[in-house]
Amino acid sequence: MKAVGIVGSPRKKGNTSLLVNEALRGIQEDGSETKVFYLNDMQIRGCQGCRTCKKPEAKCALKDDMATLYEEIESADAVVIGSPVYMFQMTGQTKLFVDRLYAFMNPDFSHRLGEGKKTLMIYAQGQPAPELFKNSFDTNNAVFSMLGFKIQDTIIAAGTADPGDVLEKDGLMGKAYAAGKSLLAS
Ligand SMILES: Cc1cc2nc3c(=O)[nH]c(=O)nc-3n(C[C@H](O)[C@H](O)[C@H](O)COP(=O)(O)O)c2cc1C
């Protein structure tokens, strides 16, 4: 089995990254292979809206690092997607990635990910109340579901500001590890 982690924070040692990597460590427990990608390090342009990808069997027309992510996600059994909350929403880096997932959608709004991908969502936010950005997370869930990502669990690291804050918060690292461990098992 194989799982891919996507980190949408520019801070490679930040809270999102720590949690995504901890979830991947949990996934590895049964011998599954994992890989992690840092969107901020990758060349990913915004979707150009050309709709080349809507032709039968067609891929995205842009030639950049999304080509790697399309392949990795298509061949994965599970995906862990993490983003900090920036201005009530996912980061810009994450949004560029999500827009480019348009290439996984058919013209009739069905998706091209077969049975779908088991997915764990991870968010880090400064505000201490985890329900504060529920509207935003619900919208993300709807988008990811339409694209073929089956969200099985969501971890919200609320009240985190500096990189590493998550290490001292509410057993969140343990939750990430457990959520990762059960992602492929369920
Ligand atoms: C540009 C920017 C915008 C932010 N906007 C919000 C926000 O709207 N709500 C919030 O709770 N935290 C906000 N934060 C705080 C981050 O979500 C928080 O520091 C988080 O732990 C960062 O995750 P990271 O360590 O993975 O980068 C913002 C931080 C930055 C830099």
Descriptive notes:
The chain has a single domain, classed as Rossmann fold. It has helices spanning 15-28, 66-75, 92-100, 134-146, 172-183, and strands at residues 2-7, 33-38, 78-86, 89-90, 117-124, 149-157. The protein contains five helices and six strands. Strands 1, 2, 3, 4, 5 and 6 form a six-stranded mixed β-sheet that branches. Strand 1, helix 1 (15-28) and strand 2 form a beta-alpha-beta unit. The protein is of the alpha/beta class and 186 residues long. Helix content is 31%, strand content 22%. Helix 1 (15-28) crosses helix 5 (172-183). Flavin mononucleotide (FMN) is lined by residues 9, 11, 14-17, 84-88, 124-127, 160-161, 163. Flavin mononucleotide binds at residues 9, 11, 14-17, 84-88, 124-127, 160-161, 163.
Provide key terms for this protein.
31% helix; six-stranded mixed sheet; 6 strands; 186 residues; globular; Rossmann fold; 5 helices
Topology:
Layout lengths: L1 E6 L7 H14 L4 E6 L27 H10 L2 E9 L2 E2 L1 H9 L16 E8 L9 H13 L2 E9 L14 H12 L3
Parallel strand pairs: 1-2, 1-3, 3-5, 5-6
Antiparallel strand pairs: 3-4
The structure holds flavin mononucleotide.
Flavin mononucleotide binds next to helix 1 and strand 3.
Number of structurally distinct domains: 1
CA distance, first residue to last residue = 13 Å
What is the CATH superfamily classification? Flavodoxin domain
| CATH architecture descriptor | 3-Layer(aba) Sandwich
- Number of beta-strand segments: 6
Q: Helix amount, in percent?
A: 25-40%
